[in-house]
Sequence to fold (551 residues):
Amino acid sequence: MNLTKREFMQVLGAGSMAGLNMNAYAQADARVAANGLYDIPKFGQVSFLHMTDCHAQLKPIYFREPSINMGIGAMQGHLPHLVGEHLLKVAKIRPGSAQAHALTCLDYEKAAQRYGKVGGFAHLATLVKRMKASRPGALLLDGGDTWQGSGTSLWTNGQDMVDACKLLGVDVMTGHWEFTLGMERVKEIVEKDFAGKVDFVAQNVKTNDFGDPVFKPYVIREINGVPCAIIGQAFPYTPIANPRYMVADWSFGIQDDNMQKMVDEARGKGAQVVVVLSHNGMDVDLKMASRVSGIDAILGGHTHDGMPVATLVSNKGGKTIVTNAGSNGKFLGVLDFDVKDKKVSDFRYKLLPVFSNMLPADPEMDALITKIRAPYEAKLSEKLGISEGLLYRRGNFNGTGDQLLVDALLDDAFGLDRHQRTAYLLRKGMQAIDHLSLGILDGEELVGSIQCWPIRVGDAALILVGPVAVASHRQNAGIGTRLMQLMLDAMQANDAPMVMIGDPEYYGRFGFAAEGTSGWTLPGPWEPRRLLLRNPAMLALPEHGALGPAD
Fold:
């Protein structure tokens, strides 16, 4: 089988590396599981299990949490914008523990060899069954981004995930990327596959013409004699984040007023517990919790924040719990309520990592996954390359697995001889700057990327911008401009001045110019007019000096 560069990127993206057995690693220390990682005492009468943003990841993977999560304005320094040791400190989790590995990027590759892969529906199924056995009546809630994101979900039009979720025992779900299957396909699944089994709820999805609800806004389920309402909040910006034609007849939005109406209506029908199953993203959930009263908890998704502790938000009606359960099948949230006098009196929350080496594969789910993958096994198991190190995923193209996608895009955009260019000599041996290195996806395909690097001139720190890469078949569509804007928007107050090699006619619009660079030299050929500087703070820089990698 011969693949073009474009096909190579698409296969890697659609397969999510699930079928690439690149290396063998040490098994995790199973004694950690025996020490009580999953032994969570039951609390109260009402329990919800929460998964979200699995992105059709049926098989376990190596998945690293971020090293940076930018909080803007009042959100700076607060959950969910804490990572690494700062997150562990707030959550009171011991560094070096299994939970610390699941929640952070600290010593990731070393720890990954001990604890192994995470997620996988067969292992998640084992944990779900374990939690439901200890919590009779518990409901499993799916926050969306479930039916789309892998090779088999693409090839089966989402049927693989629909079947897997039914077997997993999902009770209620809302959506986002589900809508990329199109209105007819979504309605078909909801009305046929899910009928009598899974409730699809979304209070903020309505018809464009008359504003009628497209789906149930909420459901009321009884758990151990306690009426509980689950209100759905689909991703509010679906028509913007995804092509409009996919949901041409439907409107979305946040709709706080309607949410308040639904909460009041559910309370009026006797609901003693009200939770919102949301795909807003955690920052939006925190704001909604402050504006809408009567919600006991918002179980959120979209932003892939693995939150080991719940955030309590005050509003005119009291307090609302806000949580987020990560992504890629890596976590299962467990929220227990104690209900007294027909209202929540107390709660317990735990975010459980799904370590595939600590949780045996559920035989029934494992058999289903094998059946799903069987028609495509040859394609999924085809060896496309050999890795000398650990391949892991990250959501913003900082993982080693994601770097394969970026490298393929760069080969396509600049050719296989790109490593001989002067820009590569400038940042030789450097690691890309996380918060300034971004990618743009069109569905499963990476169509553009930008990377930035720490370099220096004399004793002064600089940031080298580039390469700015756009897939050859997507040139002249504004993707490069968008990448530059995203990168500049992501700049932090202490970031150094930026330098790049590029055409001033194009990059001048972003504040880059050749002024101030005439006395600088590079470790390879360059045109002086194309050595550009962006220094809006007018920081003092050497007039003369050689540019090269940062120390």
Summary: The longest strand covers residues 445-457. Residues 5-375 form a domain with the Purple Acid Phosphatase; chain A, domain 2 fold (CATH 3.60.21.10).
